[in-house]
Design goal:
The protein is of the alpha/beta class. 24% of the residues lie in helices and 34% in strands. It has an eight-stranded mixed beta sheet with strand order 2-1-3-4-16-15-14-11, sandwiched between helices. It starts with a strand and ends with a helix. The relative contact order is 0.17.
Length: 209
């Protein structure tokens, strides 16, 4: 049985991600021990809150090196929400902060004053929005284009190479990266664990890799 580890670095909705995997038949271990990442076959990097704080906690918890080693070994990794943003080179949230650098590019904020139908749109972008697939990805096996998933975010990733984008979504006049894949590294800006049946299918797809 392969070992699936959800990284507990104090910045994620860990229990609901764990329950999501359990619902589709995969035992997921929540762990704050970097040694567990080294032993894991698959790793999930969740994230809520500010990019800077997440990155600080990852560094101080000793997670960065084993995470990068996991990726270099070609083992599957799934980033969720801020877990997607941390993969980027840098973020402009509360100043400029370095990320893990797995995906060259930067994390930027939705512009203020976006409007739709005469209404000013709130930031964060929060609630259900549909996915438009830009290329085939194993994470979306069995999922129809236009499926709705659950987002909560004020920032989004802009990769230097748009070929890594696997799904987009649109908020106001901004079409942004909703999911990406670079080799064995996958990530979603939305929360699969809060996205009902569609989200459970995504977790199942990752678990089966």
């Amino acid at each position: 049985m392969s070992q699936l580890v959800i990284i507990d670095y104090g910045m994620g909705n860990l229990r609901s991600a764990q329950k999501g995997f359990e619902k589709v038949g995969f035992a997921a271990k929540v762990s704050a021990d970097p040694a567990d990442i080294a032993r894991a076959d698959k790793v999930v990097l969740p994230g809520v809150g500010a990019f800077r704080d997440c990155m600080t906690n990852l560094q101080e918890g000793g997670f960065v090196e084993p995470l990068l080693a996991h990726v270099a070994a070609g083992k599957p990794m799934l980033g969720i929400c801020v877990g997607l943003q941390l993969l980027f080179s840098e973020s402009e949230e509360f100043g400029r902060h370095q990320g893990l650098g797995i995906i060259p590019g930067k994390v930027v904020r939705f512009p203020a004053g976006m409007r739709e139908g005469g209404e000013e749109l709130k930031v964060p972008h929060m609630g259900w929005n549909s996915l438009s697939f830009t290329r085939e990805a194993p994470l979306f096996k069995g999922i129809e284009a236009g499926s709705y998933v659950y987002f909560v975010h004020s920032y989004y990733g802009v990769p230097d190479d748009t070929a890594v984008v696997t799904a987009e979504s649109t908020y106001g006049d901004v079409t942004f990266c909703a999911a990406l894949r670079k080799d064995n590294v996958m990530a979603t800006q939305f929360h699969p664990e809060k996205s009902q049946q569609v989200g459970l299918q995504i977790l199942q797809n990752f678990g089966e890799m």
